[in-house]
Structures are given as C-alpha cells and as structure tokens.
Design a protein that fits this description.
This protein is mainly α. It is built from 13 helices and no strands.
C-alpha cells in the first residue's frame, strides 16, 4: 500500500512547528524582541527559541521521521516514539518560554527553574527522536550521501540541546554553573552546534535528495559533493572541538580556529555552487513552486554567510550579528522549510487519500491539491519582507523592521491556510481511473519520490 510509506506523526510535527513559528513572528511584530530590545534580553531569547526549537527543530524531526526510512530503503518507522518525542519537546519548550519570561522578574524568581526543567524535557524528546532515527540509519549501512549529513546533524542536535540545558542551569542556578564560562564559551558552542551543525547540515542532506528528485536532476554529486561533506562536516567538527579546547584553557592557536572556520565556510560555499550545478542539470525545465522558491532560500544562505563574515571582521557588532542571524533563520532555514512543506504536505496527503485506490477510481494529481497561481505571491511577499527586514536591522530602524516582519507574518499565515486547504479542501480535478482499451497504462503520478520507497511501489 502507498499509504504504508507515510509516517503517522509527521503531519502532527508540521502543524505544531507552524504554530510555534507564527507565535514567534507575532512576538516580533509586537516589539517584544530585538531590534526593539537588546539581542540577549529574555523576551528575545524566548522568541529565538520559539523559532529554533519550536519551528525548525520540530519541523526537521517530523520530516526526518518520513525521510530517513525512505532514503535508507527501510520499512522501519519511529512509531509512537515520534509522538513521545514531539510531546516532550513541545511541553519542554513551553517550560523554557516560561523560564525566559521569568528572567526579567515578571513571574517571580521560582519560575526561573522552569527554564532548565523545560530544557531537560527538550533534551529528552530530542534524544528519543534521534535514537529512533539512528536505529534505522545504523541498520542500513553503508549510508547514502544525503544520510551522512543527517547523521552529523543528529549528533550536533544532541550536542546543541545538551549545551542548551547547561545554559538554562546557568540562568536558573548560577552557583551550579559559573556564569562567565557558561555564557561566553557555552553560548558560542551552542550556536555553532545548532545553527551550522544541526540545522544546516541536516538541511543540506535533505535538500540534496529533495531538490534532485523534484527537479529530476542527477543525484550523484561526484567529487564536488565529497568536498562539500568533507569540508562542512569535518571543518565544523574541528572548529567545535578547538573552541571547546580553548574554553577549557588548553591554549589553542587562534590561527587553527580561523582555518577550521574557513574550511567550514568553504564547504557551505561549495554546497551553494553544487546547488547551482544541480539546477542547471535538471531535466524538469519548468520548476514547480516549491523548487522555485528554494532558490531565494539558498540565496539567503549565501548572503547571511557574507554578513556573518563581515560581522566577524568588524568585531561582532550587535546589529550586524542580528541581521546575519535573522536572515539565516528566516531566509535560509525558514524559507527552505516553507517551500518544501508546500510539496511534502500535498504529497503525503495524496498518499493517505489516494494511494490505495490508484487505478480503481478517478484520483487527482499531487499538484491538483495546491494552487500555485494563488500561493506564489505569498512566497514572493515572504522573501521580500525577510530581505527588507534584514536591511532594517542593519540600519537600526526597528519600526520599519516590525512592518516588514508583519509582511512575512501575513505571508506565513496565508501559506499555512494553503496547507490547511490541502488537508481539508477539495482537489481541483481528478484523473481517470484507468486507461481505455488498447492504451498503454500511464505511470502513476510521482510514485518515485523522496517520500515513498521502491518497495512500496506496485
């Protein structure tokens, strides 16, 4: 059955992630975050974690529960452990948000304890989700190219949430964790592991498979792909270990850290070059909306890397760091996530509804579940608003920034509405149930995809 290839809890992950994403944007529009306030104020930290934990982490774990069994050609699935992971992360995030808000004294000193308590739950949920995925990956060695990025990403996920829990303890119980060490060194290690390790390495691995399949481009990446994984994964691992050693006072030469960072950056640049090569080699000349809208997300990654390099050269001024981080989270990661949800949700919905009756009755195509002409302007508004908001952060124009954020908040709402209609609306048309006498049967639409394994094909 086609429907057997659908992970039971993936859509629940997506719905939960979108709710947290909308909440984060609403907080930004209300002026409760940077740049209206300082970058490290409690409410800014609360909004950042709504995006990083509530939106991107839950989104990625949900996608991986569907994606990993397919790229490994395994029939295994996470089952109830995926639900337990989702609930633990969501409840833990609510605890973390309470703790962050309590840091400014609004909820009383005792409420600050919910920050590490929530962090412990997030750590537990992430460990459960990562263990379920690791079990599948371990059983299907040697790993496919894209799966190698995912393994590295899962390792950095556990590192990220563990460090986050330690930082939460530093906020709530400074006597247990020295503040200066936890903040100056732990925060930097936390950011490296999360933004580049968990988020970006995982996004690279998934995008290699998704974009090659959706554009009908060759999946084999050759020497350039090898260079990408060697430099990005290896460079980041060395960077993180050197930073850790330096934080422990082991006297690491600055030049070694700079070289490792440069190697990581070169790996990401080569990934972008490989994406250009992939799009040029595609056999599907007319891009669907999801693959077309991945392009500005990739451009956002390129620009955010440039902004990050400029910020480092200038001594990390707050506005430059804020602009680079904002574009990285909302342009690259969120933009890529929204664009691929626009394909993944319709396809999983199509599998659930029509996989078992294909050839027996009239069914729509996957593309008939969406309306690209209606939804394209909202993607354009989203990326245009993110670009404008990045400029307004750099220029220190918080009022204009909130207006721009409101623009991509509205765009996100409309794209969520489009996904809701996919799940609950009617398709635009249906295909005939089967061929006429004497005709050659047409191939079922989109059966060879990243979301169904060959073993599930008829």
């Amino acid at each position: 059955m086609f429907g057997s290839a659908v992970s039971r809890w993936t859509i629940a992950h997506f719905a939960t992630a979108l709710v947290f994403f909308l909440l984060a944007q609403a907080a930004m529009v209300a002026g409760a975050t940077f740049p209206d306030l300082a970058l490290l104020t409690p409410t800014t930290l609360a909004a950042v974690h709504l995006v990083t934990v509530g939106w991107v982490t839950i989104l990625m774990l949900g996608a991986l529960h569907q994606f990993v069994p397919v790229i490994t050609a395994s029939g295994a699935a996470a089952g109830k452990s995926a639900l337990v992971s989702l609930v633990a992360i969501a409840v833990g995030l609510i605890g973390m948000e309470t703790g962050f808000i309590a840091l400014d004294g609004r909820l009383g000193p005792s409420a600050v304890a919910s920050l590490p308590a929530g962090g412990a739950l997030v750590l537990t949920g992430a460990a459960i989700g990562a263990a379920a995925l690791a079990r599948i990956l371990w059983q299907t060695r040697p790993l496919a190219f894209s799966a190698q990025f995912i393994v590295a990403g899962l390792v950095f996920l556990l590192v990220t949430v563990t460090l986050g829990f330690i930082l939460g303890l530093a906020f709530a119980e400074p006597a247990l964790v020295p503040w200066s060490a936890a903040f100056s060194d732990g925060l930097r290690l936390h950011l490296f592991a999360g933004l580049i390790g968990w988020f970006t390495l995982t996004a690279i691995g998934v995008s290699y498979r998704l974009l090659s399949m959706f554009t009908l481009a060759p999946e084999e990446r050759g020497g350039l792909g090898t260079a990408v994984i060697t430099l990005s994964v290896g460079g980041l691992a060395v960077t993180w270990l050197l930073e850790l050693a330096a934080s422990l006072g082991l006297g690491v030469p600055t030049a070694a850290i700079v070289a490792a960072v440069a190697a990581t950056g070169l790996g990401l640049v080569l990934y972008l070059a490989d994406m250009v090569r992939l799009y040029r080699a595609r056999r599907r000349r007319q891009l669907e909306l999801n693959t077309g809208m991945a392009v500005p997300a990739l451009a956002a990654l390129a620009v955010s890397l440039g902004l990050g390099a400029c910020a480092a050269a200038a001594g990390y001024p707050e506005r430059a760091v804020g602009a680079a981080g904002y574009l990285f989270l909302f342009g690259w990661l969120s933009g890529l996530g929204l664009s691929q949800l626009y394909k993944i949700v319709p396809f999983l919905t199509w599998l659930e509804r029509y996989g078992s009756v294909l050839g027996k009755q009239a069914v729509p195509r996957v593309q008939d579940l969406v309306d690209e002409r209606r939804d394209r302007p909202w993607f354009i508004l989203y990326f245009a608003a993110v670009a404008a908001a990045t400029v307004f952060i750099a220029l220190d124009r918080p009022t204009l920034w909130r207006i721009a954020v409101f623009g991509h908040f509205v765009a996100t709402l409309m794209l969520v509405r489009a996904l809701w209609l996919v799940r609950h609306g009617a398709p635009r048309r249906a295909q005939p149930a089967g061929p006429r006498l004497g005709q050659t049967p047409a191939a079922p639409p989109a059966l060879e995809t990243p979301f169904t394994s060959r073993s599930n094909s008829p």
